[in-house]
Amino acid sequence: MPLGFLKSTREPSRSATEGQAGERRARPERTAVLGEVEELGVGMFWATDEAGNLSFLSQRAITELGDTSGELIGQPITRVFSDVEPEAGAPAQRSLAFKMKARSRLEEQIVAVPDGRGSTRWWRLNARPLIDAAGTFKGYRGSAVDISSQYAYETQVARQSQVDELTGLANRRKLNERLTAMLAAFRVSQRSCALMMLDLDRFKQVNDTMGHPAGDELLKQVAERLKSIVKDSGEVGRLGGDEFQVLLPDMDDRGTLGELANRIVQSLSQPYQINGRRAIIGTSVGIAIAPYDGLEADELTGAADMALYSAKETRGGTFCFFTSELREAASKTAMLGDRLRDAVDRDELKLAYQPLVDPVTNEVKCFEALLRWHDSEEGDISPAQFIPVAENDDLIIRIGEMALRQACMDALAWPETIKVAVNVSAKQFVRPGYRKAVAAALDASGLSPGRLELEITESVFAGDLETVDAIFRDLKKLGVRLALDDFGTGYSSLGYLKHGHFDKIKIDQSFVRGCTENGDINPAIITAIVALAKALGMETVAEGVEAMDELNLVRERGADLVQGYIYSRPLTQDQVTQQFAEGSVIFRPSGPPRHRAERITIFRKVGLIHEDHYYDVILRNLSKTGARITGLAGVPVGTDVVLDLGHGQLVVSKVVNATENSQGLHFETPLISDGCGGFMTRHRISPYSLAEAGIPLAALGAGAFPLAKWREANKTVPKFVQLELSVPNA
Ligand code: C2E
Ligand code: CA
Ligand code: CA
User: Fold this and answer.
1) Of 169, 149, 177, 173, nearest in space to 159 by CA
2) How far is 298 from 323, CA to CA, in rounded Å?
3) What's the CA-to-centroid distance between 421 and ligand 2, angstroms?
4) Distant-in-sequence, close-in-space partners of 3: CB < 8 Å, separation ≥ 6
């Protein structure tokens, strides 16, 4: 098989911590051992500092690189090791810079290196980030093997081939050629095309626990499922590893694309049968559309890749469209990691407690511990944002254990009948040592195990279910209770419930919020989940209840407990103990009588077009069907306007209510969900039509506000009074 070097036998991957703790011998001896190992031809060794500059090269590496004068030390590693060109038929891999920025392990990363004599060699790298005892990132420690001769042969074979041998799908080379040709042709005929980038979630676990043949079999089944969904609306290919791509000509409707992506996510996350064993994986999808997000193959692929990364960051098992904000967010995330580490060191993360209340008696039965982080510059940062960042390295273990210990201690101050629930990240849960940490937290606090509940999401059911089963059994032996969180999202499979591990199911907010709206199937789903849980002897919780009508509905449908703003927002430990000191275990519901369509509060400068004039306005909030804006005075109800949300997103709207300087707009066509919690238009104005209007052809994703140019060219007389605008932090 041509790309055999992808999964070759591994060279020993050097663990930095092993290297430090394991051997306390004199330095010269260690260097000698390194030299002897290198002599065997097993590999070479290198290291970087925390900024990514080369800080060490072993003797043989120095020789191979021809670096006799030691010039390479101190250079950014990405300048010494370059990514291999995808056209070379190499298996798919993220760029070295990308991986190092994310502080991920390098596994069999292939790079090109100069040999000091003007030609290029190919090395295969393995490395891991070194995190010291305090959790600080200290750089990379890695090994390298020269694979040049093998590589040259295999790329040549791959070059001649157009199909991926394992799955029979188009390979990277063919996909790339197709994309390039299609974009060139479509530019002439002004057609659009969408690119979906897929990356399987947790495929590696299957590969590692069930073996490579099982992994191969899984990839084949994935390919089959993909083909049967996409059919002839597009071309499916495998880039290599667990990355797939779908090319969809004449597709620019983001509504349709979102539905397709959703179907792919759902289908691929159904269980697989492999040699009589069951395995579950998920997938994340990133979507970019030409000509809006990119005109050239590179640009479009980069955009889809960034969207994919964002989908994975969100929580996996989801899709995401490219937006220019993603680019900014990517650099923000990198910074967040450093800040978070400092916050943990300074003990700045706190816990808040939200009650779970019996909706019949209004008595609190349990509190869920939720992390809170207040950063001096960024303000309050949501755990939904920083937990995924912590999951990138060992920080999640420290944070998770802190939350566990603190919650057990805090619960001791409450009445004995009241439980405490602690969230567990899937990454933390599957790590060896988790059971021990739970036992230690119980021991240290003296909390009775039956009062501790661990909230786990479906994403723990990854890879080999037998291993997961064993962890569950261990925890049950400790006597703690287990709750299945966010039920109904992601990888939902009723199969998990039958194993009988869970004491409680938490019905996800997305089923509860707005469940009373007409024609909604959510009430039926809630009823079904409650009935199923009852039959299996589990408690149910309805999460995210905000309005009275929702509370009434979930109570009627038999939910045992309710958690949501209707009873209380998360409280501090002081507030909780205060209430108990007053002798009350009752929380009274209070909230709006009925659910209102979800609005996202934003303060963003956008444009508003009326007749031929372009105004600046501030978007105060946005829902699927309407928006509230400020910044104009004297706009009568009934005025037809066009809202410009930027990046080619124009929304035909009508003013439906107005105060002196704020207006409510109703959209002619509703917006659609962007898959990551926001809204967007189905269609955008095409860069082609902008080009026809005299604006140079460019993708919209670059942050251009194309209509601003149009405005400059059209100096018209305004009908309404433009007020001066200022936007906080925008
Ligand atoms: P979750 O476990 O689903 O927690 C419920 C989230 O919904 C909390 O957000 C809570 O404040 C919010 N919520 C509760 N009632 C309502 C309501 O009526 N309306 C609305 N709109 N929201 C409501 P929070 O605190 O931002 O936490 C977000 C997520 O972060 C949690 O989702 C959980 O997955 C994660 N998380 C929080 N603390 C921890 C932790 O200690 N460890 C881990 N691994 N994850 C945590
Ligand atoms: Ca939870
Ligand atoms: Ca939840």
Assistant:
1) 173
2) 16
3) 8
4) 89, 91, 154, 158, 165, 240
Q: Which ligand is nearest to the CA of 544?
A: 1
Please state the domain extents for the chain.
Answer: 27-156, 163-323, 348-581, 599-722
Question: How far is the centre of ligand 3, averaged over its atoms, from the C-alpha of 368 (Å)?
Answer: 10
Which architecture does CATH list for 27-156?
A: 2-Layer Sandwich (3.30)
pTM of the model: 0.58
pLDDT in tens, 651-705: 999 999 998 889 999 999 999 988 777 889 999 888 887 777 777 777 775 444 5
Render pLDDT for 441-463 as a digit per residue (tens, 0 to 9). 999 999 999 999 999 988 787 65
Strands 319-321 and 282-290: parallel
Task: Please tell me the distance between residue 499's alpha carbon and the centre of ligand 3 in angstroms.
Answer: 21
Dist. CA 458 → ligand 3 center (Å):
11
List, for residues 212-258, the tens digit of each pLDDT value: 899 999 999 999 999 999 999 999 999 988 999 999 999 989 999 99
Ligand 1 pocket: which of 349, 356, 399, 423 to mutate (most atoms <8 Å of CB)? 423
CATH code at 348-581: 3.20.20.450
434-445 and 465-478 helices, crossing angle to 10°: 10
54-80 mean pLDDT: 89
Cis peptide before 28 (omega within 30 of 0): no
Q: Is 50 exceeded by the pLDDT of residue 15?
A: no
Taking the centre of ligand 2 as the mean of its atom positions, its distance from the CA of residue 307, in whole angstroms, is 26
Ligand nearest to the CA of 369: 1
Ligand 1 pocket member 485 (CB < 6 A): yes
Question: Which range is least confidently modeled, 14-28, 371-385, 458-472?
Answer: 14-28
Residue 226 vs residue 275, higher pLDDT: 226
Q: Of 3.30.70.270, 1.10.760.10, 3.40.190.10, 3.30.1330.10, which CATH number belongs to 163-323? A: 3.30.70.270
Q: Of ligand 1's atoms, which has the minimum distance to the CA of residue 543?
A: 15
CATH of 599-722, one of 2.60.40, 1.10.155, 2.40.10, 1.10.220: 2.40.10
Q: Which atom of ligand 1 is nearest to the CA of 425?
A: 44
3-state secondary structure of 532: helix
Which positions ≥6 away from 91 have C-beta within 8 Å? 3, 6, 110, 172, 239, 240, 241
**What ligand is nearest to the CA atom of residue 455?**
2
Question: Ligand 1 centre and the CA of 129: distance in Å?
Answer: 30
The most distant pair of C-alpha atoms in the chain lies apart, rounded to whole Å, by 85
306 lines ligand 1 (CB under 6 A): no
